[in-house]
Amino acid sequence: MKIDSVDFFYLAMPEITTAADGSQDALVVRVTAGGHTGWGECEAAPLPSIAAFVAPMSHGACRPVSDSVLGQTLDGPDDIWRMAVAVAYNSMDLLQAAHTWSGIEMAMWDLLGKARGVPAWKLLGYERSYPKVPYASVLFGETADVTLARAKAIRDDGFRAAKFGWAPFGSSLEGDIAQLDAVREGLGPDGLLLIDAGQIFGEDVDAAALRLDAMERNRVTFFEEPFHGSAYLAYGGLGQRAKTVRTAGGESAHNRHMAEHLIDFGKVGYIQIDCGRIGGLGPAKQVADYAVKRGVTYINHTFTSNLALSASLQPFAGLRDHAICEYPTTLRQLAVDLTTSHLVRDANGEIGAPDAPGLGIEINPAALELYKVDVEIIVNGKSIFRSKAI
Amino acid sequence: MKIDSVDFFYLAMPEITTAADGSQDALVVRVTAGGHTGWGECEAAPLPSIAAFVAPMSHGACRPVSDSVLGQTLDGPDDIWRMAVAVAYNSMDLLQAAHTWSGIEMAMWDLLGKARGVPAWKLLGYERSYPKVPYASVLFGETADVTLARAKAIRDDGFRAAKFGWAPFGSSLEGDIAQLDAVREGLGPDGLLLIDAGQIFGEDVDAAALRLDAMERNRVTFFEEPFHGSAYLAYGGLGQRAKTVRTAGGESAHNRHMAEHLIDFGKVGYIQIDCGRIGGLGPAKQVADYAVKRGVTYINHTFTSNLALSASLQPFAGLRDHAICEYPTTLRQLAVDLTTSHLVRDANGEIGAPDAPGLGIEINPAALELYKVDVEIIVNGKSIFRSKAI
Question: Which three-class secondary structure state does DSSP give residue B382?
Fold first, then answer.
């Protein structure tokens, strides 16, 4: 098969807020080859990611992503790998390329899986897809009371694990302690409790460490992204000060090396990979293999649609002992409507990568129209990108 | 002063080739505040970088760079630092933000320096600007004979140092040995010889190490970017196998941490920072301080105009012992024409960061018009970016 087309669909809610809620817009990618279609989703700012696909070449190591994709052969996983290497080399100086490529790469696994009638996780080398315990992934409430109610609702909804994250966490020590106590109270004594600081401490290990006592008293399992994604030494420093809580991170990795370095130098206990950023399923699977070797737990990072969720579950679907997964439960309507199929909990309260061809998720064409953001990019009088109707 | 405007000028040669020559296009940034003007240059794909400035917000951690810049106070270096922190946090999920911000940050130092009548290197804390020995930075010839002639011409032109890089280096061991011998022959026995592999070996330490004998026989001082910019362990592995040649890298660092990790984990002997990528002069100066502490030599990375060259000289202008600098000598006409002032070698064959306000480089308005690429970006019927006349 030859790659015939790569189309981007930029979708957005009518109003976008400053909440750290990644489901407010979406960049969906459709790849066609040999009469088959695959779908992917970039976890990225849509406009620069589209620009990275269509931009005029700057020089040999700064070519648009399209140069390494359109017209290429896609007959198996090796072809995806070959294109990944080409994008990394040909678009070396184009920083946004990794994000753009991620959604395309994802769509290629979906397409290949559909063409062969097998799930993407099987193409990645797994024999089966093990169920995972989903943690309800939500934002902190503005006050501890709101958070308490949110945590109770999550427990009442049958979740055995929950992650609370981002603002107002980090704004005051007293406030953070109140938030941590509230989450534990709301979840009850048995719920697995996870905290996401959303990089609020920059690289200030002392400031982050002030929260450890309250975390350990409340039996927090991991403390996610206390620091800038590249500040490996800060992660390592905090890890040394913790007794029971482990550090977690990795969502900002835009290549395999960054995730592996966070394991080796940042000493995280949990490595969290977003397939919409790291370059897709291929490098994510390499990180999963590396995590197994290093005794670190692999987890998906997902805060968008069920298409992205399925994609991010594939790389560790076959790892029975890596048993928890991120599961956004408060998606904006756009992200809900984007797919007609949804990953819902089974009788055990678990979810898993679908046992269906490709990513196993059906796209809802009506959503692509309903939430469409019309973009046109004109360079020297020539239209080089224009949003398409589905 | 308040930031009144940030304008981008996308320039390009009429023809862009696949040569690894970064002077074929340019993204120039003009910042105005309090009646003063500063100029900067992003080392980046222009279109995605412009998009990163004007893109609609995706969510709180994925805001356009403009959100953290326009209308902000700019009265001193602390304000630049505050905006840098804001961009890193507010545009966390917008990968291209670092490249976009770099050119803006550069322009702010230029503007502040002009407003105060002092060079940027003085604002960075240096007492004086020491001259550097420029190495003529060129691409390998297609054959060893072409390279030989190029090296001879560089010696005849009075250069005491030269760097040859990129294709065809890496395509065959025999070819590479012939190229290395040719460069040494052309430069003569005394010339400082540097080699840039342009990441051609990916992370294959064995393949890169096969070139070490011929490098050491030809007294190569450093072996630059043998590997992917994030493959720290490969750099470390190669360094252990070398006897006299040192490894070099860092141009792909898009934040301070990445450069510091390349020093600590990649064990490079030379750290090469491009101010048009790492976030401007501020983080580059931090890396220079770190290099001094770690006993590593700091060098600029520059393959574009003299505006970018001056900017990249500022962060280590005051380091007397960090005495060589990259100096592109085969710039395309666009990059030559962009500035009316040029950094030319003095009687000792040396150059330095100018002893003049800001970056000390005058922009040529005619070049902004002559090489202009007209861009318009329209989102939902509204024009959110349109190239301006100067």
Answer: strand
Within this chain, do residues B108 and B169 fall inside the same structural domain, yes or no?
A: no
Which sign, positive or negative, has the C-alpha torsion B239, B241, B246, B248? Answer: negative
In a domain, B350, yes or no: no
* Short-list B367, B381, B363, B374, CA closest to B31: B363
Does A66 share its domain with A127? no
| Residue contact A252–B92, C-beta within 8 A | yes
In a domain, A48, yes or no: yes
Do residues B177 and B235 share a domain? yes
Q: Is B81 on the interface with A (CB under 8 A)?
A: no
| Chain-chain contact of B228 with A88 (C-beta, under 8 angstroms) | yes
Give the one of A21, A96, A381 whose C-beta lies nearest to B374's C-beta.
A381
A interface mutation test: which of B23, B87, B93, B380 has the most A CBs within 10 A?
Answer: B93
Instruction: Tell me whether A60 touches chain B (CB under 8 Å).
Output: yes
- Please report the residues numbered 278 through 317 in chain B whose beta carbons come closer than 8 angstroms to any beta carbon of chain A: none
Question: Considering only CA atoms, which of B122, B119, B120, B114 is closest in space to residue B36?
Answer: B114
- The string of DSSP codes covering B347-380 is TTS-B-S-SSSBT---B-HHHHHHTBPPEEEEET
Of residues A40, A101, A34, A103, the one with CA closest to residue A67: A101
User: Residue A60 and residue B18: Cβ atoms within 8 Å?
Assistant: yes
pLDDT in tens, B204-232: 999 999 999 999 999 999 999 999 999 99
List the single residue in B20, B99, B374 with the smallest CB-CB distance to A61.
B20
B18 with A230: Cβ contact below 8 A: no
Task: Answer yes or no: do A113 and A128 share one domain.
Answer: no
Q: How many domains does chain B have?
A: 2
What is the C-alpha to C-alpha distance for residues B227 and A286, in angstroms, rounded to an integer?
A: 18
Residue B190, min C-alpha distance to chain A (Å): 32
Residues 6+ apart with CB under 8 A from A335: A23, A26, A304, A305, A306, A328
Q: Helix, strand or coil for residue B238?
A: helix
Q: CB contact, 8 Å: B258 with chain A?
A: yes
A73 interface with B at CB cutoff 8 Å: no
- Taking the whole predicted model, whether its pTM rises above 0.80 is answered as yes
Q: Is A370 on the interface with B (CB under 8 A)?
A: no
Classify the C-alpha dihedral A296-A297-A298-A299 as positive or negative: negative
CA distance B83 to chain A (A): 14
Query: Nearest CA to CA, how far is A318 from chain B (Å)?
Result: 27
Tokens 């318009």 sit on residue: B376
Residue A347 lies in a domain: no
Contact A63/B18, CB-based, under 8 Å? yes
Q: What is the ipTM of this complex?
A: 0.96
Distance from CA of B25 to the nearest CA of A (A): 6
Query: Does residue B228 belong to the interface with chain A, where contact is any CB pair within 8 Å?
Result: yes
The tens place of each residue's pLDDT in chain B, 390 residues long, gives 999 999 999 999 999 999 989 999 999 999 999 999 999 999 989 999 999 999 999 999 999 999 999 999 999 999 999 999 999 999 999 999 999 999 999 999 999 999 999 999 999 999 999 999 999 999 999 999 999 999 999 999 999 999 999 999 999 999 999 999 999 999 999 999 999 999 999 999 999 999 999 999 999 999 999 999 999 999 999 999 999 999 999 999 999 999 999 999 999 999 999 999 999 999 999 999 999 999 999 999 999 999 999 999 999 999 999 999 999 999 999 999 999 999 999 999 999 999 999 999 999 999 999 999 999 999 999 999 999 988
Q: What are the b/e assignments for A348-365, b being 16+ CB within 10 Å?
A: eebbbbbebbbbbbebee
CB spacing of B375 vs A375 below 8 angstroms: no
